[in-house]
Amino acid sequence: MNSAAPEPFTVVVVSAGTSDPSSTRLLADRVADRSCELAACHGRAVTSSVIELREMAADVATALVSQLITPRLQTAIAALGEADGIIASTPVYKAGPSGLFTSFFDILDDDLIIARPVVLAATAGTARHALTVDDQMRSMFAYLRAMTVPTALFAAPEDWGDPALNKRIDRAAVEFVLLMESGFASQIRDASWENYQHEYGSAGGTEVGIDLDTDLMRLATGGPAA
Amino acid sequence: MQFGIFSVSDITRDPVSGETPSEAERIGAIVRIAQKAEEVGLDVFAIGEHHNPPFFSSAPTTLLAFIAATTKRLIVSTATTLITTNDPVRIAEEYAMLQHLSNGRMDLMLGRGNTAPVYPWFGQDIRQSLPLALEHYNLLHRLWREDVVDWQGKYRTPLQGFTSIPRPLDDVPPFVWHGSIRTPEIAEQAAYYGDGFFANNIFWPKEHYVRLIGFYRQRYAYYGHGTEQQAIVGLGGQAFIARNSQDAKKEFRPYFDEAPVYGHGPSMEEFMDLTPLSVGSPAEVIDKTLTFREHFGDYQRQLFLMDHAGLPLATVLDQLDLLGAEVVPVLRKEIEARQDPQTPAAPTHAAMVKARYGDQAPRQPRPNANRGDNVTGGSPYQDTVAESRPQYPNL
Known about the structure:
By secondary structure, chain A is of the alpha/beta class. Chain A contains nine helices and seven strands; from the N terminus they run βαβααββαβαββαααα.
């Protein structure tokens, strides 16, 4: 290892907030800022970018009903694929993550964010939906095999003035930064990538290449089926 | 380079007139369209295969034989023949028969089919579609090259001492294109056998096609069939042409907006921007088509989808007039001027016969007499090589 400064972490915020300003986005920004500060204490810089799903709602809908991924959506997906850490924040509509939020993740290749550290965050008009994060968001990211930080972030209107929210944000940010620092995602990539299913041309496609040493490839070249 | 059209055999309501054609009308129309393709100077007509409404082409070789009988130069082909839900023995038989009747003016493109319910109708399971396709083609490849076949596999009952009849015309099997968007194993199989590879090129991101075609070329060379530049590649595409760009967009828009394949989604302009769809003047269609070889390399066959989305027959025939008179002649000239001199021509029956036999007369299989049991036995033809002995199981 050389002694040059390590690469900054790239953090991508995905916000499904629909107003501007948006409390959903605010919550995500608070986590991102706190993560930045903590990483700086450990001598690591963070570059963060934001995907505002509100700005690409039509692109998301288009991708859902046709096989067309617009360049803008393509850029967002590529950024997500390259991120060291992801902060995913959604408003709660009809007692769950919003359709825009889940639709965006529906479009992604299943292997895009395997082992990636993800902070889950949600906002709602009432505290009755606090379990949305652990119940509904965590299970979707489980399907994507992401490494969700243990602390779920949820803010109802009364939480914004409460110092307890800052404590939770802090806690989530510490978990997030430590996971990024551990290099877990890239270690999984090196050690175990082929153990996950990949579709051709998906997240694993561009680096990994086409595996010729499989039963299907042997069958393709005249071998037996079994 | 070969230019032509393909149809998926859809029967779609005309959104402008509000009428849905009958199956009989569409079948009559497709015959007329294929004949028109030859009249305007195109080289290829290809038909799809489906087994449910709203399509009509469940018997591609029947249709193509009729078209071959009523044309003189046109090459008839498929887009695609189902290599999964068809018995490879029946594919071998039917397409060899077509090959004879068309005097070699045919080839075929194989695809897996993505309509899930079709599989169980034919005793198969879509979840097995890839190994099924690969195994089926391995068998088809043998059936066309070995007079007597002993074969055992997973997806079909075994064959012992089996001869697929008729033998291919001049004992040269039809050329096969393998169609795929995202499956490297299909590209590998095409490369292994030295067959062609076809990308439908309807939806992008083109990165998938680019990579798969590149892989196919690499593996084609690896298996010793030629250089990467000499691999055989075909592309699809879609066009709607009018003399004037604005008119093309105006006329096609109502069809685009309601088309089953891409209607009710993104705008036509967005689609044109992001996919190979060309809607405009002949010059615009020419320019856009000429960009394909920049991404995919020099290729051998370009097919256009012209009859879908409910376009009435009269419109499709007008389209073919424009394609044949204004677009394809320019494309032929431009591509010939630009392509790498190493680029081979698309395989034709005549060229394959020449390559196999040189100046000798091609083999014309003459069967031995029926032994009275209606079974092939080891020597079905007078010149079947002696090594073809069937391996009968010990009982």
